[in-house]
Amino acid sequence: MYSERASVFPGAVVWSRAPRERERGDAAYPVLPDGCMDLLWLDGRLVVAGPDTRAHRPADGPPAAVSGIRFAPGTAPALLGVPARELLDQRVELADLWPAARVRRLAHRIEAARDPRTGLEELALARAADTAPADPALRHAAERLAQGAAVAEVAAETGLGARTLHRRSLAAFGYGPKTLARILRLQRALELARGGLSPAEAAAAAGYADQPHFARDVRDLAGLTLGELLALTP
């Protein structure tokens, strides 16, 4: 079972997924690209989930409990001290990015916390107090792209220019603004479809040319048909 709530860390969400035994033929819900990065607590380890360009599927084997904090697009690289493009489509031990002794101390604190999600929030808040904030221009870009604004419009609003916006987007999001816009459009459409709109209505409201365009993006980014994805339980 999956649950989430807004985090006390600005713009973030904390979540947990309890292990669930799957029946034969019961597919695991894929982790879809969303422009975000997560810090996970998994089997007593701190793991960074980099930005995805395609669906990530849990590894085979017994299901495990996992908790995480999902940072808003462009937020995590400043906290981690690593450009997002270096973590693209990867799951990396935090100890590979930070000194191992430091990560062990953080892991002990999370183990001692009443709820691992609270421990992850405290870790993020403490780290944010010691680091510069995320680039406000890139935060604005992510917000406007999530609203469906065109990349050229966003480049003009930020005053960065197309090339500079692309270069800085690689560091902040892991990919350029056009890819981020495509991913965020898919997320908008799926949210609308799950909220009760028909696939055609969701496609139109999210900015797709038509329902087949929506379906192609689902196949490209999720590796499933639209019907298959909507039938799965997150």
From TrEMBL:
The keyword NAD does not apply. GO terms for molecular function: DNA-binding transcription factor activity; sequence-specific DNA binding. Transmembrane segments: none annotated. The keyword DNA-binding applies. Keywords: DNA-binding, Transcription, Transcription regulation. Residues 135-232 form the HTH araC/xylS-type domain. PROSITE patterns: HTH_ARAC_FAMILY_2 (PS01124). This is AraC-type DNA-binding protein. It comes from Streptomyces indicus. The lineage of its organism: Bacteria, Bacillati, Actinomycetota, Actinomycetes, Kitasatosporales.
